[in-house]
């Protein structure tokens, strides 16, 4: 599931493959940009911004992409067979003399002037893996709406950028509260630790192919994807339910013993258990 660490890895792969090289081919398989040809332009860099990717070209042009739930950028050598899904799922191809970057299932793809990047990422809060990271501002953003459930506040990229469903669930477990706790009710000592803890988790995992939050090799995560298996700490059955207004699928895992506090309506966990099996991290 692409979160800030996964996007950071994707940006590094794209940057290492393309930066400083001249495109020999571009192919955007979306109607709006079907006739655009960037061949001959030099790729300057690719940077992550929260869950967004910005690939910049000479002459002040930027390709903005977002992986959402299922998207991925794959990099292949010259003549290497592309492997990332069926051809009809390809949305973008950027090729140089020795590399091809292929974007699969990209839900967001747009070309814009580099000077206009703030239009697509300016709303984001401090980036957990970015040079603009500001823990005080991130915490102030989270606490600005004290009645909002903590899990929803953590997912709001306007508060801090880079957290998705996995880190939301793991952070709430490590803080010892349910994701449904109003953020204003979070004890002050734990609220103060929250931004730093989130940053440490993402930094620790940005170099890893498989996320780990437990420090135990055979158990990567404390609660995410573990329902209805026993909690690693207390052996209570881990639960899962959706969180939010229902407009997006937001599987949320928690231990009702280690994380006391508000919970969803009775019956919700079982309803979502089979819908959200644990999935491998998107490469």
UniProtKB/TrEMBL annotation:
Disordered: annotated span: 242-283
Matching PROSITE patterns: FPG_CAT (PS51068), ZF_FPG_1 (PS01242), ZF_FPG_2 (PS51066)
Keyword Zinc: yes
EC number: 4.2.99.18
Domain FPG-type intervals: 222-260
Formamidopyrimidine-DNA glycosylase catalytic domain boundaries: 2-103
One Pfam family matching this protein: Fapy_DNA_glyco
Matches recorded under InterPro entries: DNA_glyclase_Znf_dom_DNA_BS, FPG_cat, FPG_N, H2TH_FPG, Nei2_N, Ribosomal_uS13-like_H2TH, Znf_DNA_glyclase/AP_lyase
Gene3D superfamilies attached to this UniProt entry: 1.10.8.50, MutM-like, N-terminal
Catalytic activity: 2'-deoxyribonucleotide-(2'-deoxyribose 5'-phosphate)-2'-deoxyribonucleotide-DNA = a 3'-end 2'-deoxyribonucleotide-(2,3-dehydro-2,3-deoxyribose 5'-phosphate)-DNA + a 5'-end 5'-phospho-2'-deoxyribonucleoside-DNA + H(+)
Keyword list, A-Z: DNA damage, DNA repair, DNA-binding, Glycosidase, Hydrolase, Lyase, Metal-binding, Multifunctional enzyme, Zinc, Zinc-finger
PANTHER family hit by this protein: ENDONUCLEASE 8
Family of this protein: Belongs to the FPG family.
The protein's name: DNA-(apurinic or apyrimidinic site) lyase
Species, as recorded: Streptomyces achromogenes
Taxonomic path: Bacteria, Bacillati, Actinomycetota, Actinomycetes, Kitasatosporales
